[in-house]
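Researcher: Can you fold this with S-adenosylmethionine in place?
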Amino acid sequence: MLDLFCCAGGAGMGYHRAGFDVVGVDIDAQPNYPFDFVRADVLGLDRSWVASFDVVHASPPCQSYSDLAKRNGNADDWPRLIEPVRDLLQATGRPWIIENVEGAPLIDPVVLCGTMFPGLRVIRHRLFESDMGLVAPPHGKHPLVFTHDKRKSHHGKLDQDTAFVQVTGGGNCTMANARDALGIDWMRTKVELNESIPPAYTEFLGRQALAHLEASRRGRVPGDGGESLRDSAADLEARSCVAASA
Ligand SMILES: C[S@@+](CC[C@H](N)C(=O)[O-])C[C@H]1O[C@@H](n2cnc3c(N)ncnc32)[C@H](O)[C@@H]1O
């Protein structure tokens, strides 16, 4: 698995847990990235090297598409990399996944939320576009989130050690709670945590990607009548429910 725009490896860790060997690429040094790392500009990568991986994941910077940038009217200050990255991934001929925030111009993405994964305590919606026909678990009601705001009716009623917390911007909880809420224990800075995808998301998608690769090897491509990916995802979901209730 090639993990493009890897930062400190939230996405990469999930793919590793799903069973992939992971190599990350980022334009900045990433001393806390836990796997093999290449420092480079993604847009300058050798395409045949990118195509040498079984699957390619990309998390291009999201600032330009974020609500905050739209509200501040400075969305144009940030690069808009989704289209060139999609072109790069499609040109490889390998299966791929692009991740970004709500508001980003992704095509038919699945949306994942922390409420879908037992143990997570963040509502961090992330969109995933792919050529593999990925599926998402059902999306339940959002719980109340721990708050310091005395005007909120649930102020003082939740404990930040156990409730859902906010891990964006300054966040509203301790670093220890932010790490616990995201299911991440190796990152050292708030910036890394703010940027990260909870590994549970990409572990879930990584298992679907493995099922897709296996189906492709057997010549039974999902969506061609075989529907093996959907079967595997349903099987995965059933198994994760069993694991969660165990
Ligand atoms: C949203 S973060 C990725 C988060 C990561 N997927 C995770 O789950 O932890 C985006 C990353 O893209 C990197 N980046 C921005 N422009 C880049 C470029 N042209 N080439 C490579 N990396 C780039 C940034 O340094 C940043 O670490």
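Model: Folded with S-adenosylmethionine in place. Residues 5-11, 25-28, 41-43, 59, 61-62, 195-197 surround S-adenosylmethionine (CB under 6 Å).
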